[in-house]
Design brief:
The protein is about 40% helix and about 10% strand. It has about 725 residues and is α/β, with parallel strands linked by helices. The chain folds into 2 domains: about 350 residues, TIM Barrel, CATH 3.20.20.210; about 350 residues, Alpha-Beta Barrel (TIM Barrel), CATH 3.20.20.210. An 8-stranded parallel beta sheet has the order 1-10-9-8-7-6-5-2. The N and C termini lie far apart (about 70 Å). Bound molecules: glutamine (GLN) and zinc ion.
């Protein structure tokens, strides 16, 4: 039984990846020093693999992102040096970034619109270079199909032609390699027959090179596994954790002789210690279909932190966890158990994190707990009377510039350099300045600014019982950026109110309504590591009930509008549409549970997702009163989707692209509103930016909001 691992976190245990690259950006180290240091990081990754597993890739290191690295390798971009390379990764000429499958990793999207043909040529055989330089490991590649499928600017009609051109380039690359570790996660998507046929042709061609290819898939099951069986590849990697249907296919169709089944059994996407007994059972079953088996991780390991070492979490929690290093040991251990025939140790049962009162509360939920007592239109009348807002009301999404000053103060408080009283006094000061600022601008619905929040999930995670935060549990989000996902390990409850201090204070300063600001259950789950010993739906309802209590506190403090952000609702959706109904059922119910409080409270939500049309039906089942959406990238599409559906709720389509430092002028925003009003009734329309203003600076914020308020006034 061999062991096989891939996707080890390049970030490094001390976030070396970030430090090296950012040192180059600052001009502190030269290009050659940067390359050397990244190589030594690759050397360390290899050493970790070598200590635990038999087989692993080489060349997974990148100077920024593997998709972009591939684009350079195949000549789609030709930066002459590292500075030119980074000019394509960040700044005003950067490629667009988007989420990698249903993860929270963002890759750079190669763009082929307006390209001269042929699109590809081998500019740099990086696989060969790394193979020769490190002299061990299997050369790593992103497969040509996944690369193109995740690129943009290629029409379905052009796809085949592009794939053929790219296949010729991969063929040249593979001709110089003895073997290759080729990742094709896009094989788990729902593909068309012609795409599947194209995959077949591609790998038939690549097989002619004689390179021993291991075709690695993950994140879900492959629907056309039998087609992969026919390909001239040496091994096939399957994910049995996130794609249990792979096992069903093998039961039905077996596994071909002469190929290695690389069995992904150790979860690469979550931090829980593996259940050896159940993995062993799958492994034993698989061994009835093939004698060539390797134990592997299921999904790349960079979705989990590097190591548990150095964490100071409670012992009862630590003993349940495995990060990347510990998972490599689990791969080894699982293979040993299989070979030795030894029985795995039964997991320890502990009551740590159990809160029966929370469980009972969820168990007792009735259907009516998810349905508001008053329907939308009646609520509308109530709110209109109570709030007295003008037509085309203006508001913002919540956060205001998190300047160096704000970050410094928060850090000082965390380090204990200033006490709670001083810190809270300072936050109040910021809130009071912001309230006056918004009143002066003439905004209609105000916010408190979120100055006390580092991050919209971490902030709540720290306040909720049943969720832990780590000291060094960084995972990569994009480029050199990491974040530390909280760990939802137990039953979730709210020991005391979490945000009322700031919100209620802001409301005392003004006669205009201030929005209470919460992060919804789906987003808290999506950006954390969630427990998997109970259904995710129940985790969501537990969080939903805690948030509902928070809204009831708002109501007691005379807060009339509450916004529950769910920016991750689309991202958390399963890759396959067939699994959508089950997911959206609990996702929508958790929102409706959270917001099922006094119907007099006007409920807002916010979503940042540009392909909104895809999920508009589901969104419409969330019983909010007002939604604000990030739209700058695809306003036209969104409007089209509103034409198709009877959407009665109020909408604020973002009129200011907050990802750009440019101040939008009145005319430009007015055009956006005019176009929208052709589809959306004027009485249902709000005027707001795309998203929170956290990353912006004050001068552009002030100028842009001034223009935004002007647009509303003129349009009224
Ligand atoms: N209320 C949050 C903010 O304004 C929303 C952030 C988000 O959508 N990601 O920052
Ligand atoms: Zn947003």
């Amino acid at each position: 039984m061999q062991t096989y691992a891939y996707g080890y976190p390049r970030l490094g245990s001390g976030r070396e990846f970030k430090k090296i690259i950012e040192a180059f950006w600052k001009g502190a180290i030269t290009e050659s020093a940067t390359v050397e240091q990244l190589d030594s990081l690759q050397e360390q990754m290899i050493a970790v693999y070598e200590a635990k597993v038999d087989l692993f890739p080489v060349g997974e290191i990148t100077a920024y992102d593997p998709m972009f690295e591939t684009a350079v390798m195949v000549g789609a971009y030709t930066p002459a040096n590292l500075s030119e390379y980074y000019a394509l990764c960040r700044g005003k000429n950067a490629l667009e970034m988007t989420k990698w499958f249903n993860t929270n990793y963002h890759y750079l999207v190669p763009d082929f619109s307006d390209r001269k043909w042929p699109a590809f040529s081998v500019t740099k055989n990086r696989a060969k270079e790394y193979h020769e330089q490190f002299n061990r490991g299997i050369p790593y590649l992103i497969g040509p199909f996944t690369f193109l499928k995740l690129s943009k600017g290629i029409t379905p009609e052009q796809f085949d032609k592009y794939l053929q051109s790219l296949t010729a380039v991969y063929r040249e690359i593979l001709n110089e390699l003895p073997a290759a570790h080729i990742e094709e996660p896009a094989f788990v998507l729902e593909l068309t027959d012609s795409e599947i046929a194209a995959i077949h042709r591609t790998y038939e061609t690549l097989g002619e090179t004689g390179a021993k290819m291991n075709l690695i898939t993950y994140y879900d099951a492959v629907d056309f596994l039998e087609v992969l069986y026919e390909l001239p590849v040496a091994g096939i990697g399957l994910d049995f954790v996130h794609g249990p249907a792979n096992l069903d296919t093998i039961r039905k169709s077996g596994f071909p002789k002469g190929k290695v089944l690389i069995a992904g059994l150790i979860d690469g996407r979550n931090v829980w210690k593996n259940d050896m007994a159940s993995s062993l059972a799958i492994l034993k079953e698989l061994s009835q279909y093939t004698s060539s088996l390797a134990v592997s991780n299921a999904g790349p390991l960079y979705h989990v932190p590097v190591t548990l070492q150095g964490e100071t979490l409670p012992a009862e929690l630590t003993e349940r966890l495995a990060f990347a290093n510990e998972k490599l040991a689990e791969i080894e251990h699982l293979a040993d158990l299989f070979t030795s025939g030894e029985a795995p140790l039964a997991p320890q049962k502990s009551i740590f994190g159990v809160d029966t009162s929370v469980q009972t509360r969820v168990a007792k939920l009735k259907d009516t707990d998810f349905i508001k007592s008053i329907p939308l239109q009646e609520r509308r009348n109530l709110h209109d009377q109570m709030l007295g807002l003008p037509i085309l009301p203006t508001t913002t999404i919540g956060s205001f510039p998190q300047t160096a000053e704000v970050r410094k103060k928060r850090a000082a408080f965390r380090k204990g350099q200033i006490d709670k009283q001083e810190y809270q006094g300072w936050i109040r000061h910021k809130i009071s300045d912001l309230v006056s600022f918004q009143e002066n601008l003439g905004l209609d619905v105000l916010v408190h600014g979120e100055f006390e929040r580092t991050d919209m999930v971490e902030f709540f995670a720290e306040k909720l019982e049943g969720i832990a935060t780590t000291k060094n549990g960084w995972i990569i989000s994009y480029g050199t950026r990491g974040y530390r996902p909280p760990i939802i390990y137990g039953d979730v409850s709210r020991p005391e109110s979490m945000t009322i201090g700031e919100i209620a204070y802001a409301q005392t300063l003004t006669g205009k309504p201030v929005k209470g600001m919460l992060t919804g259950p789906v987003t808290i789950i999506a950006w954390s590591f969630a427990r998997n010993d109970i259904p995710l739906a129940n985790v969501a309802y537990q969080i939903g009930l805690a948030l509902q209590d928070e809204i009831r506190d708002y109501e007691k403090a005379d807060i009339k509008i509450v916004q529950v952000d769910e920016p991750a609702i689309r991202e958390k959706a399963p890759l396959k549409r067939t699994a959508w109904p089950a997911y959206f059922d609990w996702a929508i119910r958790s929102f409706n549970l959270t917001t099922n409080t006094d119907p007099k409270t006007q409920i807002h939500t916010h979503i940042c997702y540009s392909e909104f049309g895809e999920i508009i039906e589901q969104i419409n089942l969330m019983d909010f009163d007002v939604i604000s959406i990030e739209t700058t990238r695809s306003r036209g599409d969104i409007l089209e989707s509103f034409e198709k559906i009877d959407f009665q709720r109020q909408i604020g389509l973002g009129v200011w692209d907050i990802h750009s430092p440019t101040v939008p002028d009145v005319k430009e925003m007015q055009e956006v509103v005019e176009r929208a009003l052709k589809v959306i009734p004027k009485t249902n329309f709000w005027i707001n930016p795309d998203c929170g203003l956290k990353t912006r600076d004050w001068p552009e914020t002030e100028a842009s909001l001034r223009n935004l308020v002007m647009v509303a006034k003129q349009m009224r």
